[in-house]
Amino acid sequence: MQFQLNTDSNIQGDDRLAEVAEETVTHALGHLVDRLSRVEVHLADANAAKGGADDIRCKIEARPEGMDPQTVSHDDADVSAALRGGAKKMRALLDSEFGKLGRR
To answer: Do residues 92 and 74 lie in contact, with contact meaning Cβ atoms separated by under 8 Å?
Structure first.
């Protein structure tokens, strides 16, 4: 599985953040990682320097093999919380989509 991290100009996307993001997302997705060809994470700070509650947006796009890309978005107070929330939503979505395939 390929992993890609993208950030906006308000979040510094260094190697350490990329490692943390990949670890957080792959851990949350668990056994589903083997069924994905690519995962892209986009982090953005909606309010920039103004601050505010739940202003970090984490958008995750997963590309399951043989299926259309799946996308979720989660807003939270900081980067790590946004990553955890987005990864949790992606796992729920993929569990649902793969479950539908299994019933066919």
So the answer is: no
Q: Model-level pTM? A: 0.90
Give Cβ neighbours of residue 74 (< 8 Å, ≥ 6 apart). 57, 58, 82, 85, 86, 88, 89
Residues 40-71 pLDDT 10s:
999 999 877 666 677 899 999 999 998 899 99
Domains of the chain: 2-103 (3.30.160.100)
Compute the distance between CA of residue 26 and CA of residue 101 in angstroms, rounded to an integer: 22
Tell me the CA end-to-end span of the chain in Å, nearest whole number: 26
